[in-house]
Fold each of these.
Amino acid sequence: MHCGMCLPTCPTYETTLKERHSPRGRIALMRAIAQDQYQIDQNFAEEMDYCLGCLACQSACPAGVDYADLFEVSRADVERAKIHRSTLRKFWRWVTLEQLFMRPKLLRIMGRILRFYQKSGCEFIVRKLKLVRLLPPHLRRLEPQAPRISERFSNEFIARVEEPATVTKYRVVLLTGCIQDLSFAQINRDTADVLLFNGCEVLTPSEQPCCGSIHSHNGEARLARENALALLRLIDPTSVDAIISNAGGCGSHLKHFQRLLPNDPRAKIWDQKVKDIHEFLSEINLEKPQVAPFNKQVTVTYHDSCHLLHGQKVREQPRNLIDLVPGIRRIELPESDWCCGSAGVYSVTQPEQSRLLLDRKILRIRETGAEILLTANPGCHLQIANALPELKLMHPISLLAQAYRS
Amino acid sequence: MNQSRQLLEEFCEIVGEKNVLTDDADLIPYGFDGTAALSSRPGYVVLPGSTAEVAACVQLANTHDLKVTTRGSGTGLSGGSVPEPEGLVLCLVRMNQILEVDSKNLTLKAQCGAITAKVDQEARKVGLFYPPDPGSMKISTIGGNVANNSGGLRGLKYGVTRDYVMGLEVVLPNGQIAKLGNRCVKDVAGYSMKDLFVGSEGTLGIITEVLLKLLPIPEKRATLLASFPTLEQGAQAVSAIIAAKIIPCTLEFLDQMTIRCVEEFVGIGLPTQCAALLLMETDGHPVAVDDEVTKMAEIAKRHGAIEVTQAKDEEQSLQLASARRTAFSALARVRPTTILEDVTVPRSHLAEMVSFIDTLAREHGLTVGTFGHMGDGNLHPTFLTDERDEDEMRRVHLALDAIVKKTLELGGTITGEHGIGLAKKGWLREQVGEASYDLMRLVKQSIDPRNLLNPGKIFD
């Protein structure tokens, strides 16, 4: 089926108007490779790098093509074909995919180092003295985007087991994530608070493996599988009512462990239990917040994380949740379903296209005149915060938590 | 090859290097359109940005005897923009501007690559609309629509693309730029050449600009959904509505297979147990609309409708029409290869045709989903198959032959809106007869004596 309904939803097709930069075009290349009419080459590798993996095409496809799977398989095939030869690229993949995002302890150590660098005054000095110039060009460009590291990581202020004040209605596991844990640990605290307020016993293992989505999205299926197995070892899905994710980008991957482990019966149960926090809250009898979180009426707008909207089909739940909070007026964000350009590590690997999308997103946000931007994914959060430092950004769950606390 | 390097350089000079594509990774995606099982690999893909560039490209192609296939978004359903092997694809999607909306004269001028949905959107900003609404409108280009004389859901009442083309700018096979038609409502100066180019499937000229007629947005619109226990009863209800001298805006039909696929995708609560669903839309003056709604609901019930419901607001109306437009693509959920037919019969023979297709599918052991513009007799029986299954494909072609034969027997046409392209060449002569066929070839030979533009399409 090549009807082309995906084309108008594809950001890269819109930018270039070239067929190969569209989902239909990419699938045509994949099909040609499968039929031996073409082989994986530099062009194909670059093409799959240029694809955001935003899955807007998947939402638009009436035929139900599973582009997410095709995308991951293609990127894995490209790695296997060893097309990319750059040593620098190999190095950074080794540092991130094989080390940092396979070893939670190591990731936290890096986090602490970065935190010290940021809070001790070192960063200030380095920037003031323009020592950033000493960095190689690709790092120099990225330096300003470096995420702010949280005061405390999740395990420092969320206990392994937390009981609700009232009767326990549900038993859930809270996944703390990687970037979420390092930069936005407070969001994890807020998520735990909201769950507790709603009668959940919250289990939060203090050290959690990466969900593996960064590995799957970057052609390392084997490493993704390892992370999936590590999570299954850590958490028994049959022992809880739900496994909660509050990061759109992770949640999408977490629901497809069956793809990675087709013969593992635990994977099937795991996939069924994983819920995005908004999804979970919409399925239980939610405690409606009675008090406004701020001392005046505040206008907000909500940006859809691609992997929450397109990947998990969670659209109405966050909006409904926000609408429940008193003292909040929500304006629908035009093009809320259009990618912000964060797309995992895309802002690092494809800075130009990422910037194009970010600029467009900023324009739409500004047009709403909202005082707060709500988004449920750390990648989007960082991407937008970098460009709009003066705008307040929150996770919808933090808004709810604040309302509960008022 | 020296010649091709020179050719490439000359193309680059006309359109700029980044708009000339020659790598396999670039060429492969332009090798097909929306039609199943048809593809080839072009030699060059060029994306011009203006009429002047198109003309220059055509002249260059002429000099080198390079065959040219024009392309918009490549969503055609008869292979019209499948390229000539090693030929040139002129892809016009960069020429996508809406040039002018004239609310005094009720016209809109656009470049050929403007997306049809955007044309309608721009018109609506001034209280007007562009009626032809093909299923592909979100992505197909107005130029492509004109080249195929596309229809759409509103065709029953509002007609087809041809009815809205007031003027065209075309690049002729010799590179000349011709302006056809006029902004005036009436014009009989010379032959109506624009009508020749509408529906010419890129074989006579390259449409670069269109001047369209717009209509005022109707005051009210109402949408009805009627479910039927059998296909025949649904078809009979349609015939009865027309016989009662009601011309609703839309009278669309979906069979159970189609409803299920569409519902799986859109999830708006379509009834999936009935054998046939009629989507009926009426628009116009509120009093007329209410009257037609009542009459159509009554006729539907008289012909055995299980349930007749009305869309509660504009949003739901749009949702239903949008859902119907996904039918062709949604059917791919069943089997990967969808071979869509486009036969049209006189409305009085609708029920007979629907029945015939159903029986035929069973006889040949094939899966068919049928939907379409029942109101104008234009059915889309869609074979759900797998192009890798050679035996099944053979049976599909036998069935297609039988459908065509029956259609022609009933005085119908092999293609109501998708065009001949590559897919239906075999049957054209049979349908139109010797004299008509020879006349068409004469026209082609006069306008394009070197057979430069889209060779092998419509006829050889």
Amino acid sequence: MTPRPLPTTRTLSRLVASTTLLGALVLAGCGTQDALVGLHPAPAEQTAAAPLDAEGATAVAARLLAAKDAPVGGDAKAAKAARAEVLTGDALRVADAQATRAGTPAGTTELAAEPQPTIVAQSQGRQWPRAILASTLDEATNTQWLHAMVSDKPDQPFRIASSVPMFGGAELPALGEQLAGAPLLDTAQKNGLAVSPAAAVKAYAAALAQPKGKATDVVAADDQFATSLKTAAAAQAKALGKLGTLAQTHDPQLDDAITFKLADGGAVTFGLMKRTDTISVKPTAKELVLPAEYAKLLGKKKVTKSLVLNNLEPIVIVQPKTGQGRVIGASDLLVSGRGR
Amino acid sequence: MATIVKRVVGALLALVGLAITAAGVWFATQLGTSGTAEFAMHPATTDPVVVGPEVLNRVDADVVVTATPTEGGSVFMALANPSDATAVVGASQHVTVTGVSVRDWALLSGTTGTGTAPDLGAADLWRQQDDAKGPVTLTVQQSEAPETLVVKAEGGQLSSLTMEVTDKSWFVEAVVGALIGLFLLVVGVVLLTARRTRHHGDVAVQPVPPVPDAAGTIDPDQPVGAGDGSEPTVPLPATVVSPPEAPAAPDTTDSPDPHDPEEVTR
């Protein structure tokens, strides 16, 4: 039997050397150094989310609402420029019209709201335009306001695009997890709904027409706003009697409309309608004496042939995934008129 | 041949050990006991400087960035989502920090784009921002990663931008590295300087011859040799016992050399 040779010093030396060298090479190997010092790849950006955190969005909304109500110095041109720094779209159009009519800065208009916003939703994703949907409570009138704020480009700040008071008892359905964001939709597209938001606004406008509206099942026309319009129109027509006639139309102005997708697949749209009231003086009437408000607007106290009054009507309409849509907030503002 | 390999390995180990020791000691002295690494650059520019997540968010520790304008200037510094920062800076001329150089503790950068940058402060996409006359410091929290930092000097140039990261384990690792390097250095030196005292060849075991019929006897009280240093007078058995240590190079002769002092006969 051949005896097994014992490890020699040389063998041990080789073992130590090889192990040590191997260890050194492993330690110096690719990636090991990074791991040793705690280096790792940067995490990937989650782009399907709200662009701002809740704190950031609240700060933006609070800043804008405070700026909107802040008094503006200087002449009309300076005041207009100041409004354009805070407002855009429908809100700017309404504020400018109101300023033109009243000669007062937007800070004193009825669009004023408490600058203590609650962020309802943000648009989803990293693309532009971006939008913030915020709400405020006017404690003086116990009215909840909805504000849509928009940033059109990366280097442009958010501006208020629409401010609309909600009807008493009206509800805005959930828009989903705030940090996840709610996708902005194209107002002119159906987006999986029965009709597009634009079509819904158009149907609502047609339904409000006077003296006879066009019935629709796309959107309910029995809300607080529609009812008050009908009531006022009926009262006006009754007051005119045989002296004149009243025709009222509502024209959707949706170039700056903003539509958020709701959590249930529906949509909420901030839109604008232009209302035109036309009072035609009948031949049996010699003239119509205008109320003080209209007289101031037109610069005359009476008309003999016709009176045209223009109003801007910001509205918020909610469309469920299926079923009839409903307007949950609206306001109107007399902005201009003419009389003959 | 084996000796050469051993010496080469020893030399390599010594060199590697020396390098690791030097690196460990250097890192330990540079980082300090707090383990703080500070990288700096001096862009001397009015263009925006962009530091992306591949620089800010590759460690677990928070990163403190300080921007200093030239005398009398102010600095705007803000953090944003990486895609937002890219969008707002756009194609305008800007300096991008691409990495760090540990050798000289510098921020590596390159300039890209053309044209003037937009008003960065007007944008509503910043997660955190500060604007002040003189140095401005922001802390990048890794819990908010990934983020991109944008810095722009106003009313002057950006004099310096420093990025500071503190990780106490780095100092410990540097010390441990130095110790490992020292160990490798010692092992390498030992291998390199070990002398060959014998040639440790294989042991050749001679065949055992048959025992003669009339074996001689040895009186343990009597000298085996002739007493004059010459050949022993007693007939020797042919048994050969290997020495306790390995013998020299194998002798291929058939019979043992009785004059070989390393062979013991009895």
